[in-house]
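hi! just following up on the protien thing from before. the input was this:
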Amino acid sequence: MTTFARTLVAMAVPFAFGSVAAQDLPAVGSKVQGKVAVGRNTLVFPPGTWDVVWTGDATTGITGDGARSKVARLMAVQRDDAGQWRAMLYHASTLVTTAGIGNWNTTACERRNPLHMDFSGNFKFPECTFVDFLITPRNRPPETDPVYRALWDWSQQNKVKLPVSYLRVWYARYQGGDYVQTQVSVNPEAMGMPPAVVTDRETSEWNAAVLKGDPRRLAYVEELKKWSAELAANARTTVGGGSPKSDSLPPLPQAK
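and the predicted 3d structure came back as:
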């Protein structure tokens, strides 16, 4: 990886941990909906009530001078009326602007064969939207993956069964000395899709090649693509503490 004198290395994990004041983040165990303050950023949730199950603070590191920039992170989950896991939202954003950043050295916008990709930034300041699927790990994720480790722990503690595979919308924008990332993971079964059973990514029911023979799943992915554009448009203006485009997001797509 090429190193620049003042390149901010911004990966989802791992981070060095810092200290974010309690008032900067909703409390773990609290219920949130609509607009929520996460540090200086405003996070807009999809409709419904969400349970905050994990928060984390961190610092991004600038190579060359050892400076650090604080980051706030949050994860919340939503269940349906039967208590089934419906969706998860993960958010990370800078709490302060780091001056002098001319290039973000990050692989956050690099994905191998996603179901959908929209790259609208540049290599110095990338901006991207993805729709993809993930296979639920059979074992507890490692400490280097704290977000999905937290989801795993929450599911075990609450005796909530996670699906074999699930879909994820990912939006990230890096601009100047700031960035924002928002991920929304969706349980297709809770949205009315039949359960997936294949645990291999290459032959999964959600693999792009397999989707071509499954019009209903393919149609759902198309709806999620449309929804991802709404998420991106709303989050784009929040980088650096700006206001979201709208105070609300459309509902997560239901299967037809």
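The chain has one domain: 8-236.
Residues 8-236 form one domain.
cheers
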